[in-house]
Amino acid sequence: MPVWTWSLTEGMRRDGEAAESVTQTPRAALDFIASYQGPAIFHLKDFHDPMRESAEIRRRLRDLHESCLDQSKFVVITSPVRFIPEELERSVMFLELRPPDLVELVEFLRDETRPGTAESVLHQVAVTLQGLTLEEVRYALRRVLATGRDLGPDSLPVLLEEKRLLINRTGVIEFVSEGTIIGEVGGLEGMKKWLLERRKLFQMRDNLTEEIVPKGVLIMGIPGCGKSLCVKAIASSFALPLYRVDMIEIFSGRHGKPEGAFVAACRMMEDMAPAVLWFDEIEMGITSTESGGEQGRIFAFFLTWMQEKARGLFVAATANRIDLLPAEMIRKGRFDEVFFVDLPLDEEQIEIFRIHLNRRGVDTSGFNLAQLTQFTGGWTGAEIEQCVVSALTKARLEEREPTEQDLISVAVKIVPLSRTMKEQINHIRSWAFERAVRASPRPQGR
């Protein structure tokens, strides 16, 4: 069966032949199809604009649908934009082409790379670039090859950077490249143990029933206590890429209607699986259950999507204003667990001090870190980090090594968040007392 292709720039033509005269306009193309004798397939490129802008074109398409019945003439419309006029919805079969899966990517990489490239390398690269279109994969490959690297483990960091640039240009989803190992998270032993157990189940997901495969975790708590750090540690522990959905960008209007932007972001992330998807400050975008508003529709979609999403996608959500979260969000079944991150205990504060000092190259063997806890009651992890940074800054300005006294002199001047916002902190604690599992098990008597 012959295939005719039409575009606004070239008109109607067959491969290797000159374009038919007077078929440049959309209406002329439809007239050509109507008058054509014999079976054929007619491919109309980017026909969404003519359908959207012209009632005449929509009417002509309906006429064409009737005249092509039982004539073995088929019209195929391709477009990067999903638009089907209401008048044609019942007459059109809609097919959505998603980004290539692993099988397609491996086959494409085999054609694009030199013969003899190991299958294990092709599969590793395909997993790294999953979620991109074939054109984006080709672009990333050629950028790597232009640096003189061979395709392999050494090229993966360059491929990940290219993927980060390609994903981040969407403006709604951010590829978070910097990771955090779980050992760099101070305290929170209860949540760490839970995550290590769920990591094993997640790695076995293809052999488990759907209800056992981990779906996600909701981490709520006091600002500055390490919720974001925990999400990065989850991605590193699961050995998965981390993507963050920016709810502020979704509601900005720069990417169309918020509802459509949110749905598109979730669908796109399913193409990226396996991965960790991070909804930061989820209460700022998914709070209302009013069915008439956009937030209500987004909320309803999110609840359904959490139940039906791809099993290779682990959702990690964080929240500060936990009292804004609807009851449907935190009930069992939406997330595998809901954790509350409280102010660190004394022993956790010591561990956090040690982590931040060691990360900055300070030898803590001569420090009595336990002594610091008498000055840091009610501190958050972020405040401990700032104390370390301020002490190091003071020591570097005086061109000497930092000492324990530097930390103490800074600590006595810091007024913690738990004191300046005491009422709000107490409200958060009381709200979460019976609604969430503590990330740090309290010692007896506390």
Can you characterise this structure?
The chain is of the alpha/beta class. The chain has four domains: 3-91, Barnase, Chain D, CATH 3.30.370; 102-169; 182-340, 3-Layer(aba) Sandwich (Rossmann fold), CATH 3.40.50; 346-414, Helicase, Ruva Protein, domain 3 (Orthogonal Bundle). It has helices spanning 26-35, 48-53, 55-68, 102-112, 119-128, 134-146, 156-168, 189-203, 227-238, 247-250, 258-272, 294-308, 327-330, 346-359, 381-397, 404-411, 417-420, 422-432; strands at residues 3-7, 11-14, 40-45, 73-78, 173-176, 216-221, 242-245, 275-279, 313-319, 337-341, 437-438. The strands form two sheets. A seven-stranded mixed β-sheet has the order 5-7-8-9-6-10-11. The longest helix has 17 residues, at 381-397. It is elongated and about 90 Å long.
Task: Write a brief structural summary.
The chain has 446 residues and is α/β, with parallel strands linked by helices. 44% of the residues lie in helices and 12% in strands. It is built from 18 helices and 11 strands.
Largest sheet: 7 strands, mixed
Question: What is the helix content?
Answer: 40-55%
Poorly predicted runs are none
From the 3D structure, determine the CATH topology of the largest domain. Answer: Rossmann fold
